[in-house]
Amino acid sequence: MQEKSKFYKMPASSYGFKDLAPFLSEEQLMIHVEKHHRSYVNNGNAILEKLDKAHRGEADLDMKSTLKELSFNIGGHILHCLFWGNLLPAAKYEEPGGALNKMLIAEFGSMERFKKEFTQAAQSVEGSGWAALVFCHHTERLLLMQIEKHNVNVYPMHNILMILDVFEHAYYLDYKNDRAKYIEAFWKHVNWKEVAARLEKILK
Predict the structure, then answer these.
(1) Of 133, 24, 35, residue with least CA distance to 89
(2) Total structural domains in the chain?
(3) d(Cα 34, Cα 13) in Å, to the nearest integer?
(4) CATH code of 150's domain
(5) pLDDT digits over 32-56, tens only?
(6) Which of 176, 172, 178, 177 lies closest to 31 in space, CA to CA?
(7) ∠ CA 105-160-75 to the nearest 5 degrees?
(8) Does residue 23 surpass a pLDDT of 80?
(9) Which of 22, 34, 51, 154 has the most neighbouring CB atoms within 10 Å?
(10) 6 in any annotated domain
(11) CA atoms lying within 13 Å on the CB side of residue 150
């Protein structure tokens, strides 16, 4: 069994900073990854180090504020990892098929209706946050989830299949305050094979 790291790490990427243009420019993607995502990793690890000291009796912490901050940074890291994984260059785009396509149509009526409802969910997130397609184990249904910040309104134990970052830092350089245009461009960069693989893993 592979030994797990005791700290968070930045994920490897299958594409470069230039490869998602014009959806995301090189500058936009680089700042998002190296400034914002990396800060969640660094901040989360710093909190883990503080917790390690507390466990050894070397320090006392305000647990309420510490765990709230940890939740925010863990959420930021994990959601970004999922986000980068369900993106790809437009040249590699393929429409969804197989079990994923069937389940989307069964739940939403059509792919067009799914995209419309997901777009509405992403557009209407209050402030900074995310829109996600999730699988509910209790009902075996696909549902939409709005996440505010990185950790508010999360459905417990619902697996995320696809996610879109609608924090302004995700798109502001390229789209200014036009979130709708950013969401529209997103649809030609969804890595449906990765989304389907996540679903297959869950169903197994």
Answers:
(1) 24
(2) 1
(3) 13
(4) 3.55.40.20
(5) 999 999 999 999 999 999 999 999 9
(6) 172
(7) 155
(8) yes
(9) 154
(10) no
(11) 20
**107 located within any domain:** yes
Q: Which two structure tokens, joined as six digits, stand for 59?
A: 């320090």
Predicted structure pTM score: 0.95
Q: Does residue 73 register a pLDDT over 60?
A: yes
Q: Which residues contact 75 (CB under 8 A, 6 or more apart)?
A: 147, 149, 150, 151, 154
**For residues 154 and 96, what is the distance between their CA atoms, to the nearest angstrom?**
25
Tell me, yes or no, whether 17 lies in a domain: no
Q: Is position 12 within any domain? A: no
Model pLDDT, residue 3:
59
CA–CA distance, 67 with 147 (Å, rounded to integer): 18
Q: Say yes or no to pLDDT of 4 above 90.
A: no
Residue 200 domain boundaries:
23-204
Show the tokens assigned to 81: 């990892």
